[in-house]
Amino acid sequence: MIRAAVIGALACLVATAPAAAQDCRLALLLALDVSSSVDAAEHRLQREGLAAALLAPQVQDPLLNGPGPVALAIYEWSGRFQQDVLTDWQLVTTETQLFEIAETLRSAPRSTGEFPTALGYAIGFAADMFAAAPPCLFQTLDIAGDGENNDGFPPALAFEHFALSGITVNGLAIGGAGAAIGAYYEAEVIRGPGAFVEYATSHDDFATAIRRKLERELRVMTLTLDTP
Length: 228
Prior knowledge:
By secondary structure, the protein is of the alpha/beta class. Helix content is 45%, strand content 20%.
């Protein structure tokens, strides 16, 4: 029932989308938490986990073989003014591109690690990123974090004041002592048709969680666009 409802909502958007956007089915923006609560080992687990997920067959297949390419970009975020792009927008059409993105994730130095968790600013930054993205049928922000907003304006104000209308925001909540962060992401972070939260019990579970999340986002989109 849930999948049917999501497909129905997305199908309506497909029917009304501008014809010029048909070449790219999805602009997917991935955001990684590098606030001070994420230590060096946890940061490495995030980077390695995302790299492994992008190369996993369960992700590669729907990403490369769907109805039209996917545009992909990745940034790290922490404090109010600490948002750093790791890989800028590119239409991903080959396995070679995914290997190059994975290598960047593994080799690029950590952008920062000394600032608090400014989720509102991280979401607001995504609006500027999407403004520079290739024209695509859909736009999805995939934001991961292990804590609630504790610096600057909250996510609600980002949604109110930034150009985020029509953008789906999904969350990957990284827990520890419990699932409270998942509930926070459910209530404060996710937005848009079919938005959902994937939960990782710890950074050790990040690789599995991000793979599940990407697979779900890409396969639902592929199924929707393939449905007559």
